């Protein structure tokens, strides 16, 4: 029952937030084509394999965590990839290293820490998050 | 004096008001041996100082063994000097530059971020105060500062330049001091980089360059752990390699997305690096540096900020 409530509230919540991301051409292509294991190279020194995905999520600044001026407390984002240790998301606003964010997805909520951010275009930032913990929302 | 290793000091660190605390030697150009100029407890006369200022051929030295003592003396007497209206701004700048190099060298070696932020906060206040002294010109400052490329020399110089530029752009008091301290801290992330990569003579390979490019991120991370570091200082550390056209690192933001203090830091950071000696090349002249920077101004820098800096330093070119 709890799971259902959470799922409903996720749907309602995400609908109440404005989608402000402007996806770049290459990101659109990425979301249409990329399957399997995400590409990498030796320079990236990745610890675990990333799997491309597409899904929406809500990012939330954890109470008491540091926040830069103008950053929204709660906003809509897109999940780009997932790995054992991290999650890559696309956002319309810039996030800063060491910021702690809660990433709410339909079936789980992740506690994360920002590792790095790269601007891909106007209102389009690629954010690498390190997963510190998670809470699975059980299906009823 | 044969056989005793000596290190050079600036004549501007001497005053006719206080003794220097260590024996000072001088060596006229072309001669091999240094001779005793002042004993530790002696005070230089006005005439002697004027003569030293006028002569480019006489160099002053202290014994390398007494370097710590000399630095301690500078630190201990610093406030006394600084508050004294009779000491010209030029001398204060030379002394402050020495103190900064020494404090940063100590602090960077100890590598404790809290302690570094603490120490730089106080130094930033002094740098900012000096930057507002109208009698000190940008050109003079360029002459006074050391131009070897150590991270602590570079950081000290960037702090001086940042505050001079910020003062010209209208920043005052606490904001100016905050920017000055930001200049001292901007490369703190380099403390995490292997010195062999940092000081490599010659071109860096792709892997080494990637390591170097991590320093704004590393510096920002360090400063987030220290409450005393301000947002401006965090941003100066994080954004000083961003470019106005959005092709910089680590994020690739551009224009006004880059904080004004970071745009200030970016101009003087490049300027300082080019006018300093590197392991693989000598320092470029002011004229060469400004010409090269002008070529890429619309891509790399905030044009208005760069032009203000150009005005500050080019007074020397005309003379
Ligand atoms: Fe840097």
Characterise this structure.
The complex is a heterodimer of chains A (140) and B (319). Chain A is α+β, with helices and mostly antiparallel strands and 140 residues long. Chain A has one domain (2-136): predicted glycosyltransferase like domains (Thrombin, subunit H, Beta Barrel). Chain A is built from two helices and six strands; from the N terminus they run ααββββββ. Chain B folds into two domains: 1-66, no CATH class; 88-314, Hypothetical protein af1432 (Orthogonal Bundle). Helix content of chain B is 56%, strand content 6%. Chain B has 15 helices and four strands. In chain B, a hairpin with a 6-residue loop joins β2 (24-28) and β3 (35-38). In chain B, α4 crosses α7 and α5 (138-144) crosses α15 (303-318). Chain B starts with 5 loop residues before the first strand and ends with a helix. In chain B, 40% of the residues are buried. At the A-B interface, β5 of A face α9, α10 and α11 of B. The site of fe (ii) ion (FE2) has 4 residues of chain B, from loops.
Brief description of this entry?
The complex is a heterodimer of chains A (140) and B (319). Chain A is α+β, with helices and mostly antiparallel strands and 140 residues long.
The third-level CATH topology of the largest domain in chain B is Hypothetical protein af1432
Count of the domains of chain A: 1
State the helicity of chain A in percent bands. Answer: 10-25%
CATH architecture of the largest domain in chain B: Orthogonal Bundle
Oligomer: heterodimer
CATH topology of chain A: Thrombin, subunit H
The first-level CATH class name of the largest domain in chain B: Mainly Alpha
Strand order of the largest sheet of chain A: 1-2-3-6-5-4
Characterize the main sheet of chain A.
Answer: 6 strands, antiparallel, barrel
**What's the helix-strand series of chain A?**
HHEEEEEE
Query: Largest interface here, residues on each chain?
Result: A-B, 14 and 17 residues
- Measured as a percent range, the helix fraction of chain B is 55-70%
Rg of chain A: 15 Å
Q: Strand pairing plus helix content of chain A: what structural class? A: alpha+beta
Average pLDDT of chain B, to the nearest integer? 89
Helix vs. strand class of chain B: mainly alpha
The SSE string of chain B, one letter per element, is: EEEHEHHHHHHHHHHHHHH
